[in-house]
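User: Please write out a complete single-protein record containing the residue sequence and its fold in token form, without commentary.

AI:
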Amino acid sequence: MSTTRPRMRRVPLNAAAVVTVALCLFPVYWMVATAFTPARDIQSDSPRLFPRTWTLDHFRTAVGADGFGLFWRNSLLVTLSAVLLSLVVALGSAYAVARMRWRGRRQFMLMVFIAQMAPWESLIIPVYIISRDTGMLDRLPTLTLVYFMMTLPFTVIVLRGFIGTIPPELEESAQVDGCTRLGAFRHIAFPLLAPGLMATSLFGYITAWNEFAYANFLIIKQQDNRTLPVWLSSFQNVFGTDWGATMAASTLFAAPALVVFLLLQRHVTAGFAAGAVKG
């Protein structure tokens, strides 16, 4: 009797969780299902929840489209460069804030929080004007720097909290044994930062990979420097009403982020939880 009541109380919560997950995943399922549905069944008068037959024709159309491989490479190059650059800069900044005492430390973190809360869409025009006046329009390094600035505040905040959970006595013991501060950090603290690095890498990857507005406004004349989100927005114009090819391209676009999340999911929860602890 005592064990039955708690279980019954959890039924509404579990039901609400199932409904929420179903509502969130249904558009994704519909996208994938449409990508595998033959063209004759996509706009049928009686649409089905599960395709009658499955086809790979839409994926062949998407992969064979002009620029697919080029734009895929551009997105991957810009995303990985921005994430790596953000990790390197944020790691040094977070360590300085969490381990060192210097004037202006609190003000620095306040500015980082303000930068994280600022809507980046409001900065499109200033960034465009600066890029135009400096001759940086239509260049992939410009996108890399923009994505670096977008992901840096969050990375600093999470890594700062994560470093704060590592006892400083571990590094002090290594320094007593003859290690320098840098050596103690590299041998002692850095290996313990793996979950935090994984979590921030995932956030930065998804943010940069899915970003559309800046890629659309900063790459205007050099169409070969476009990224996948911009290419995907023009996919419907290229193929008209070929929704199957559009959904197949969207599935291929979402697949890398899903793979990265599945590879890093073990560390993501621990990284975000530790990053939320005050250092």
About this structure: Residues 275-279 have pLDDT under 50 and may be disordered. The radius of gyration is 23 Å.
